[in-house]
Design goal:
four-stranded antiparallel β-sheet; 12 strands; mainly beta
Length: about 120
């Protein structure tokens, strides 16, 4: 399993923006298709966005037009720009790399969570 650290979460007001980062401790980062997942208290984990190696992206309907996933392979870092945040975006956010050993599914692909997550709390 690749180790990573997520950061950038916080407590904000509805309508605000945050940018999450996921720094991976592996030079193989560039070979992975990546994703962001989130889990709110008492709810199932859900996929938020995915960025394939070829550059294709896919987003959950709930975040389309508001969130943007990107990466910097030179820095082994994955990003999630979150704009127009809503209270329903409140959750722990995790980055994940595509892996046959993972137990997280999104957009027909299998992912393994890499980090401990970063908390996002949006108040109305």
């Amino acid at each position: 399993q690749v180790q990573a650290v997520e950061s950038g979460g916080g407590s904000v007001q509805a309508g605000d923006s945050l940018r999450l980062s996921c720094r991976a401790f592996s030079n193989s980062f560039k070979y992975y298709s990546m994703a962001w997942f989130r889990q709110a208290t008492g709810k199932e984990r859900e996929g938020v966005a995915t960025l394939l190696i070829g550059g294709n992206t896919e987003y959950a309907d709930s975040v389309k037009g508001r969130f943007t996933i990107s990466r910097d392979n030179a820095e082994n870092t994955l990003y999630l720009q979150m704009n127009s945040l809503k209270p329903e975006d409140t959750a722990m956010y995790y980055c994940a790399g595509e892996s046959v050993y993972g137990d997280a599914w999104f957009a027909g692909r299998q992912f393994e969570l890499w980090g401990q997550g970063t908390q996002v709390t949006v108040s109305s």
